[in-house]
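Re: beginner question about structure tokens

> Can someone show what the tokenized structure looks like for a real chain? I only ever see the sequence side.

Sure, here's an example I had lying around. Input first:
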Amino acid sequence: MVRAALLLCLLCQPIQACETALVLSIDVSGSIDAGDYRLQAEGLASALTDPEVTEALVRGQVALAVVHWSGPGQQALVLDWQRMLSPEAVVAFAGRAATLPRAFKGSDTAVGQALTFALAQFAAVPDCVRKVVDISGDGQENAGFTDAEARAQAVATGVTVNAIAIEEPGPAFPVTLYYRSWVMTPGGFVVTARGLQDYAETLRLKLLRELAKPVG
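And the corresponding structure tokens:
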């Protein structure tokens, strides 16, 4: 009787809602060589397993998915949605992300199509309160030319688009300005990684900012 009562009590506990569904959309176009790709994959795993990030992911029951993108028609869901229900789930997801083979090699940079593909993935997680695309890239759109249309679709469907602009060392910020002007949605933000060596720490700080509960 006691065991049955305890089981019934557990079943009656309210299930915490998924606060955020987050698509991590990674550039694997021709400008990303094998070493650059490895830095991105390992940087993603490192950022996810940072203690502060892991705690925020589990606290919010965040749903994560990973997309690889390159030129027109080259977008793939390489890690399907998974809820971060425990630190162990985060570690397992990060381990898979670190060892993923890249989906495409040596093609153009179709940012708009990458964003449109990412937006389509949210149909699988309708219960998540917030929907965010976290797109990273090291160049402006040079194929497809649908970035403005894709951003308008994100705005219309209530999806926030944030970005990591990967810049070569130096004083100019052309990729950052591109993502801010053409890809980021109102209320979103762009952060800059000064080369791929800076990617993991930039992504860590970006995730903490994305996963913070909105104020007001």
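Each token stands for a local structural state, so reading them left to right follows the chain. The CA atoms of residues 111 and 208 lie 24 Å apart.
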